[in-house]
Each structure stands twice: as C-alpha cells, then as structure tokens.
Amino acid sequence: MNNNDSHNAPGDEVKYRPGIIESKWQKKWADTSLYRTEDEVEGKENRYHLTMLPYPSGDLHVGHWFAMTPSDALARYFRMQGYNILFPMGFDAFGLPAENAALKGDTHPQTWTEQNIKKMRDQLRQMGAMFDWQREVNSSLPEYYKWTQWWFLQLFKNGLAERKKAPVNWCLDCETVLANEQVINGTCERCESTVEQRELEQWFFRITDYAEELLDNGELDWPEPVKIMQRNWIGKSIGADVSFRMETNNPSDDSEIRVFTTRPDTLYGATFMVLAPEHPLVSKITTQEQKNEVANYIEQTKLATEIERQSTDREKTGVFTGAYCVNRLNEEPIPIWISDYVLSTYGTGAIMAVPAHDQRDFEFAQKFNLQIKPVVQQLDVPELEIEEAYTGSGKLINSESFNGIDNIVAIEQITEYLAEKGWGEKKTQYRLRDWLISRQRYWGSPIPMIYCKACGIVPVPEENLPIELPFDVEFRPTGESPLNLSDDFVNTKCPECNEEARRETDTMDTFMCSSWYYIRYCDPNNETNAIDRDIANKWLPVDQYTGGSEHAVMHLLYARFFYKAARDMGLVPGDEPFTRYYSQGQILGPDGKRMSKSRGNVVPPDDQVTKWGADTFRAYLMFLGPWEQGGPYDIDGIVGISRWLNRVWNLVNNKSNLSNTENVETTEKLRYLNHNAIAKVTTDIENKQFNTAIATLMSLTNDLYTLRTNTTIDSTIWKETTDNLLLLLAPFCPHIAEELWEIVGNNYSIHQHSWPEYIESFTKEENIKIPMQINGKLREHILIPRNATETEVLELAKKLERWSEIVGSNEIIRIIYVPERLLNIVIKPVT
RNA sequence: GCCGGGAUGGCGGAAUAGGCAGACGCAGCAGACUUAAAAUCUGCCGAGAUAUAAUCUCGUGAGGGUUCGAGUCCCUCUCCCGGCACCA
C-alpha cells in the first residue's frame, strides 16, 4: 500500500503550503509575544545569544540569512533546553553608505536609513527567528547615540580618550581619517581607494593601555584563528631601547638617538642607523652638505602613497644625513641614514641596522655599500660571500667580552649591561596603535566636546546629552567636517566659563556604536543610564556570539577593549564581552565567488523564501555544509530540503496503517530510531554541526517512512515518535514544526516545549553487525549480540560459511576484537 | 615572506578516540503510477576485473613511514582559500 495514495484521496488532501502557514505563525507569535524576553524568569537561567547586527543597506542578503538563521536555531535549542534566552536584533545605522546614497539620490541619510530599516525589519521577520523586537536598537537614533556620547565622556574622564597629533591614515575618496584597522594593503577598507598619511590632531581611544590584557585571550572559547589574528595584530615584541650618543664636536651636547631592537645581542653588529624620514631629529642632525639631498628625499616620501611605501618587494631607498653617532659599547662611529622602510609610528621611529642579521638592513647595506659585520658565529664568512642575513641562533663573535656566549643568553646579558650603564633598558613594544575614532563625516554620532579659548578642551556636561546631529546640513564630503558648516551647531557656550566656544565637529567611527550595542540590548529603553547595573549582571557577558571573522581585528577587538574599560569603571560584570564566539563562513554565489551585483551572481533571499518558504531556505542554508566553512549556494540543491519537509508533512498527517495493538519488535525499532536521532541531533547542535543534524533528521524521516509503509504501528508509540521528530525539527524549521504540532493536537506552542531527552539504552540495538577483517582487509560481516565477548565473537565467526574459504588452514597469529566495532584476524600462510 | 585553514564520487558534503570510506542531499540512470508530463514512490549510482552474480583488485592532492588496520598519526612535497605584510 502506498502512503501517498491514501493521503491524496479526494477530500482528504492537506498539502504543505509554506507561504500560508509561515505568515500565520509569524502573526500568532507576534500577537502572543512568544519571543518577548523578560529579564528574569523563575526557575530559568538566563542565557544571552547574539548574532551580529546588520548595517541597514536596504536589502537583506543571503549572507544575513546564512549568519542569522543557524544562530537562531542555536538560540531556540537552548530555549528548549530550559534557558531564558535573550536573542535580540537591531541596526548598526550610522555610516558612510547612507551619505553616499544620499549624494546619489535625492534623499537625506536619515530618511534613507529609516526607509531601509523599515524594509529590512520586514525581511528579517520573514526568517521566523525568535528575535525580541521590543529590544531593537538603532544606533542612529538620539535615544541610542545619547549613550554612545555618554560612553565617550566616561572614556574621556578615565583618561582613555585623548586628543593628540599623530600621523594618521587619510582616505582620499571618503575624505576622512581612518583607524589603522580600517586600512587594508594601503587602501580604504570601505571604498578601496588610496590612503595617505597626514599629520593631524584627532581623537584617539587608548586601546594600547589594554594591549597586554587583550593579548591574553587564550582562555576565551573563540575560534583559534581569530584569537591568533588578534594576537598578531597586537604584535607584542620584547627587546630593548638602546641609546646611541651623537658624535659631535661640542662636548656639552649630550643629544642621543634612541632605538628599539628585539636583538640587543647583535648590538656590536650595528653598522649604521636608520631614521624614519619624519623623525624629529632629522632636521637637527643633517649636515650642510647633505641638506638638499635629505630634503628631496623627505619630499619624495610624502608624495608616495601608502601602497607604494608599504610594498615589500620595492628596492630600498634612503639617503645619508652626514651625521654620525657612537656605539657606546665599543665607541665606534656609526653613520646615520634616513629611509622610508623605517616607520615613524613604531618604536622610536629609528633603528640600529644590523645587516648581517636582518634581511631588510642587509638589502639596504648592499644597495648603499655599507659595512656588514657578522656577530653570530654561523655567519663567520668573508663579508663578500654573505648572501643573506642570518637570523638564527649561535654563539657571539666580534662582540668583545660577550664573545662565545649563546646569543639567546646574550640578549639578557647585554640588556642588563646597558641598563647598568644607563645606556638602555628592557622594553616591550606593541604593533597595536591607539584607536583613532574621529571622522570628518556627517552621518555619525557627534563627539561631545567643546573647544574654549580660555578653558581648552571641555567635555559636554552629561545632562546636555545628546548632542543632536542637525538634520539640515550640507554633508557633501569636502575634507572638512560637514558639521563645521553649520553655525547653529558649531557655536555654543563653554560649559565652564560660559564664553563663546566651538563644538567638536567630527563624528565618531561607527565601530564605537557597535562596541557597546550588546550592552544596550539588555536595557534598551533605559532613559537614565546606558544600562542598569542589576540588569547588566543578569545578562552580561554574552554567552554565545556569532558573526563573521572579518571583524576579528576591528569590531571584536574594539568591543573587548570597550568592555574592559567599562568593567574598570564598574559598569559591567566579567572581563570579556563575549564568553563564546563562533565565526561562520561566507556564503558564496553559485559560481563559487563572492556575491556581488557586478558579478551578477546574487541570490536574493526574498525570492528563495517566496519559492520555497522560509523553513526550507533556513534548513537548506544549514544543510549546505559545515557552518564555519561557508561555500557556494547551489541553487538546485534546495529542492532536496523541500522534498524532505513535504515527506515530514505527509508522514505526520497520514493516518493510515495505525492500530491499537502493539508490536513489540516495531516499538523497539521505533524507540531505537527515535532515541538515536535525539542523541545525534543534540550533540550536533551543541557542536554547531547543523548540516549533520539535518541529515540525521532526514534519515529518521526516511526510516519512519519505510517502517510505516511496511508495518502496522501502534498509534501511541507512533505519536510519541512523530512528536519527538517535530521537537527536533523545531529549532531549524519553526513554522512547519508549529503547524504540525497543532495538527496532531498538541498545545501551543511547540517552542515552549522542552527538548526531548534520550535514554541511553534505547540508542543501541541488541544485535549489531560488525565488520570482520582478515589481515586488515574487509572480508565479511557478522551479526553479534552487543555485549558479546571476544571468544563468543570468534565462535560466531567460525560458524560463517566462508570461514574455511577466508581463513582455511592458515595459522592465526593474532586476533583483534574491538568491542562493538570490529573483528580482525591476522593470519600467516602455512608453508 | 610569515601565520592560519583546507584538498574525499559528476557536485555539496559524512566518517566518536586509528576500526565497514562515500551517511544525507543534488545531479544522473532504470522502473512503478499517468493518455502524457510534472509531482510522488521503488531500485541503482567511486573506478576496474569477471558470465549477471558471488567475489576480487584499486581508491580520500602526491611520495614515503608507523600500525594487525591510516581519510584520520609522523616526515617530505604540490596546489587552493583566508589573514598579516619593511613592526626593527
């Protein structure tokens, strides 16, 4: 008998119509506030799940679905496990695209953003995710950025926000400065256009104060590659600061050059010095004869873009200053050069060059015919025969009293010696720079600072927040902050002396907004505080964060810094914002390339939802492959999920072949299938292996189908089985699970039901089939009782028909029985 | 250059802790149902040998090794993807 026949009998047809049931349940969930999260629920532990909030570009992308729906499934699973789950959503709504769109079209960034949010909110609702929309945040609303500004003031009061002059990255196209993290290969992270260095006074957050603590991320339950990326970005180096006396005819001149080196052991091999062209000493020390050449070189450097300057395969350039300093260890004179391969922003902006043991210095020395002096033994060859720098270890040579000492030991000894003499000291350097947060753009949160001629830099009093972003402003990028053009905005009174003063007109980097949004979700409507301390204790830190690893050294590092600063102000509990973080991969176009309009490989999620339904689309995205891996979206594969859900639908709706008489064998088989699936799906979800969880559910569906087609089943055990199937399905496909749950007569809502538990003994069958190998090669299968001993298994094996054929009279030299897994018989031919 | 991750059928992928390679799905092939198609259902679906089979051989990027047994562990190499890139 065919299930489908009876199901399709006239008058009995109930077809799976995703479009109808999905909107039905989305409405009911909203009407009954099913996903409304209270801060406290009796008997339930709070658990905070979070997926990165989107930028309101105006159109939800498959990438959003790929990132958010598995995250939703995970949150739903933990909800069913009995936790009180916070799973919020919002919009990272400040940023350049709004301005760019406004410049192209006849609209305002605010209008554009509002419209986009409205559209995207609807698109997000179609996912059927358990977002608590009452906690939505929008970082561009004054109710939100009031607190972004408030945080700025707290950082300022705690000495973590400062205005300083520094060489900064300037994007020529965006006409604004950028943080170091936002410059990729010398180009702007957003618009990919050229970035150049400018010396400007800007607002910085002192993230470097937390370098050491940020580096210490080993205990975090985060993907190892992301932690490594952060550690590399912070870039800790231990070495020494060493000072070299300037050689001068004037005995009262005690000026010196300080360098940072990780190789104090090679100090005797320093044969020249190199200063960054921007180094302040350059103008002081350059001799009359070299003045022109040096000035020309500095001019050239300024003209070079960051891409040109940072290119490693470019030949080294530089000029001699004419000046010398003295290596205090041996009183030898050392010529001082300048070159752009030395960065003014790292260390002291000057280096001692040891060409024998540093490849960059080696290349420079070769180009300009400078002395190469080996000081580590392995390189004890005539100077002309040296082909590259030796960076390995060895005993010191040419180093006077340090000769013969292992260079690793010499690092310590020479550093100590320098310290004793007052010529240097041990030093730790970080590659990480302070976080530059000023932006010369309109669509961002104004920086709440005031410049007063008399009082200097004065923070806006907290009670005057928010400093609202004026709507009516000419925001065309001119390289000058648009807010500067608004007299109403700029002109103000000094909060201290009440005299005429000017407001800061730069806005904040939008990464500032996203550094604390997860804090605001906990208490989104609080008008007197950024977050209530009691509520913070209830939810923070985030238990499970998910999102793309492209944010590894930007958002994720900034947020960690921010949270630690907030902790030190006593405002949030714990040391880290995100206890667990998991990065999903990237979904690609069907052609395996990044989806983009220009490539024409974009798969619009709305179309997929219309065609297949949200549940099918969700499950397909989770089924494609490992979540962390991402990969191409195969437009044809989704039909498999659609077929599966239809089978589930028919399986549960079908009333045929059910009876009231129990068949013990069938019941046992059903229990086994059922509990096995519960066990597998449970561990898979916990490990975020959604693809295999869904494969398990498919297998279960197939097995139930087969059993149902071939046997008559007791209706009680059948309902128990299908109920469990629906519960296991609920996190992945919340709508169909809810609909079928209702159809079989269960109470609303399946999503308030607890996750099924499996019974260990049911997950195993009495008799199992194990492979039997001869010399490690598969020869037969044998059916054995699960707890059989080796002897019993061997007896069963000997009863096999093929025993004499495959073993015969050969000598058995070893028997390996792995309980419940395999039997391997090692034989040797009798000669 | 440095630091990560990876390579398994026609395709996406699966495989506790070293134990039946290819679960699950797509595509494909054959059949059932149908006037027909779609949908659905059933079966097959890594390569090769043999008479269909039973069975055997080969097979997880390449080469070597450890082991009764290797996709999994060790060594060497190739290619692909991601990050950083003159950080002294």
Topology at a glance:
Layout: H1 3-7, H2 18-31, E1 46-51, H3 62-80, E2 84-86, E3 90-91, H4 96-104, H5 109-125, E4 137-138, H6 142-157, E5 161-171, E6 176-178, E7 183-184, E8 187-188, E9 195-205, H7 211-215, H8 224-234, E10 236-246, E11 256-261, E12 272-275, H9 282-285, H10 291-303, H11 306-310, E13 319-327, E14 332-338, E15 350-353, H12 359-368, H13 407-421, E16 424-430, E17 435-436, E18 438-439, E19 449-452, E20 456-459, H14 487-490, E21 491-493, E22 500-503, E23 507-508, H15 510-513, H16 517-520, H17 533-539, E24 544-546, H18 555-568, E25 581-582, E26 586-588, H19 605-612, H20 614-623, E27 630-632, H21 638-653, E28 658-659, H22 664-686, H23 690-710, E29 713-714, H24 715-729, H25 734-743, E30 767-774, E31 777-785, H26 790-798, H27 803-806, E32 811-818, E33 822-828
The chain binds one RNA strand of 88 nucleotides through helix 1, helix 8, strand 11, strand 15 and helix 12.
Please explain how this structure is put together.
It is globular and about 110 Å long. The longest helix is centred in the last third of the chain and has 23 residues, at 664-686. The protein contains 27 helices and 33 strands. Strands 10, 11, 12, 13, 14, 15 and 16 form a 7-stranded mixed β-sheet that branches. Among the domains are: 236-430, Valyl/Leucyl/Isoleucyl-tRNA synthetase, editing domain (Isoleucyl-tRNA Synthetase, domain 2, Alpha-Beta Complex); 635-762, Isoleucyl-tRNA Synthetase, Domain 1, CATH 1.10.730; 766-828, Ubiquitin-like (UB roll) (Roll). Helix content is 35%, strand content 19%. The chain starts with a helix and ends with a strand. Residues 1-12 have low confidence and may be disordered. By secondary structure, the protein is α/β, with parallel strands linked by helices. It binds one RNA strand of 88 nucleotides through α1, α8, β11, β15 and α12.
